[in-house]
Amino acid sequence: MTSMQVDKHHDGNEAPGEASEEGYQRGLGNRQIQMIAIGGAIGTGLFLGAGKAISMAGPSIILAYAIVGLVIFFIMRALGELLMYRPVSGSFSEYGREFLGPFIGFVTGWTYWLFWVVTGITEVTAAATYVQYWNKDIPQWAAALVFTCALFGINLISVKIFGELEFWFSMVKVTAIIGMILIGLGVITLGFSNAGDTASFANLWSHGGFFPKGIGGTLMTLQIVMFAFLAVELVGVTAGEATNPKKVLPQAINTVPWRIGLFYIGALIIILSVVSWTVFEPGVSPFVRAFQEIGLPAGAGIVNFVVLTAALSSANSGMYSTGRMLRDLALNGQGPKLFTRLSKNGLPTWGTGVSVAMMLFGVYINYQWPGEAFNYVVSFATISGMWAWIVILASQLRYRAKANRGELPQSDFKAPGSPYTSIFALAFIAMVIVMMGVDPDARISLYAAPVWALILGVGYLCIKRRDASNGLTAGAAPQDAPTKGTKD
């Protein structure tokens, strides 16, 4: 949908089952949107990646999560302001196109699509490896194929089924973290289990202090912590299919502080109090290690199931978002027209199908050649995810300036402290990108970005040439492009 095709005064409050302005069915209710928002902030970055961050910074990793959590809240409130101005499924790609130009919208849409394709590849592959925890005889490729086909089938039924699956995926993750916090509190206060004699909040400062690796060690973990929050912006992609976006989306976004406080900061405080930070190591889930130290024999298996759920949830979200991004690009003349089509249930099946095909091919590549070439592709997901955040913040700054001048209507959900909070968030992301260049392990992410930028640049020049021959503005939707897309 082009910016000119949108009714700026539409309230976005269609009843459940009605079609949105983009042709999607509004099948995601408040309960599902809330859990999608929660699930987007809890993933393998917490369950697995926190182990490396703890080993690098010690207890001060708690402060790193708190600072990054504040930045994430600024990003989400900036997105919320834009969503209340115009709730569309294209979300930040559409906002980038409107406020920063058609090229930025083009880059954002295709980059976010690639982000989820690559993420889907890695998550489905990871899920297949988690299955081997219970049965090593199951081939990794077979489990990956089953998971991919099953999730694809679910995404072909209806958006309501997708939302329901994400609801239960998120419930598993939330229940696991709350359970871990309660068990940990019991160990600390009541002293039961193998770790009862040593568990204490004093572990947060008794082993080299709160900053055992110095301020520098804490700063170097910021990039890892940022990566853990990738996909929190997914709630914005649901705008075109939420039953009441003007009410539901602000509620979901306003829960960001307590979600981060409970599921990240709260969980890490308990884990690092139950077990000294010196016990944790990269590549090992801190949750698994904490259960082992407590002495719960089923703990490792439970956490493995939760991490499996987190991986499948991420892959499911990837399939959902890729189809919507491709359709938004196609509706704006920046992608193949085939992707504008919707199924009878209002689903972008062609875009989702092509994306899933890419995911299947990626699983095959990962199985056959799990070498450095594949690692370069996977590493790109991190920088591409942060690009979406940059576009959200820059678009919100441009929108607020225009709204203040009376050129656009004011949003009903203004970002507090803007423009200063958005500028701070942009500066923080810039600092993290610079630090990625300093860290040899993260530098690989920056190598892939210029290659992708070159590919997109060539693609956009081709679109400009095509549009010029047709007498259109670069990236504008063709005159015969449907607003809602044709039905299959």
From TrEMBL:
User: Per the record, where are the segments of Basic and acidic residues compositional bias?
Assistant: 1-13
Location(s) in or outside the cell: Cell membrane
Region Disordered: which residues?
1-23
- How does this protein lie in the membrane? Multi-pass membrane protein
TM region(s), chain numbering: 35-54, 60-79, 99-121, 141-162, 174-195, 215-239, 260-280, 300-320, 347-367, 373-397, 418-438, 444-463
Which superkingdom is the protein from? Bacteria
Per UniProt, the keywords (alphabetical) are: Amino-acid transport, Cell membrane, Membrane, Transmembrane, Transmembrane helix, Transport
What's the main place this protein lives? membrane
Domain Amino acid permease/ SLC12A as annotated: residue spans: 33-467
Family under the similarity heading? Belongs to the amino acid-polyamine-organocation (APC) superfamily. Amino acid transporter (AAT) (TC 2.A.3.1) family.
- Record's protein name: Amino acid permease
